[in-house]
Amino acid sequence: MELHLRVLRHDPPAGGRGLRPLAIPASNPTMSETTMDNVIEAPAEAGVGSKKLFENDKVIVWDFVLPAGQETPVHMHNHSYMWFAVQGAPLQIYDEHGNDVGLFPVPTDGVFELKVEGDTIEVMSDIGKGVKVPSKHKAKNVGNETYREILVEWK
What we know:
Blueprint: E1 2-8, E2 19-25, E3 51-55, E4 59-66, E5 75-76, E6 81-87, E7 89-95, E8 100-106, E9 111-117, E10 120-123, E11 132-134, E12 136-141, E13 147-154
Antiparallel strand pairs: 1-2, 1-8, 3-4, 4-13, 5-12, 6-9, 6-13, 7-8, 7-12, 9-10, 10-11
């Protein structure tokens, strides 16, 4: 099975449609419910994770959980980062004004690296490579399972 990523590029190519489909391999979407026991739900204020696990002068490590049907507040990524999808799900991405940017189907066990430059995030990892989204955005879990990732920001 193969999933397709359709993300509206932040800088649409001249003469292009603005949508860039990318193939992402599907993964096993199962995860034990007991792994969710110690996770705190996302706070009302904007942030890039549900719970900060660790911070020093080089990195910030976040646990991020997004139940099916829920969305994050609008938040800003100021640091380049990577994440590991503990439990994947399709994430609908919206810019800060609520405009649909595209669907990002994150596979379980997927590893992503993202570079933040000003108001743009570019996917650098093999999965989704070259896709760009606004650094200020929100995401909605449009899947049937709770989404979970471990995110590491580089300072």
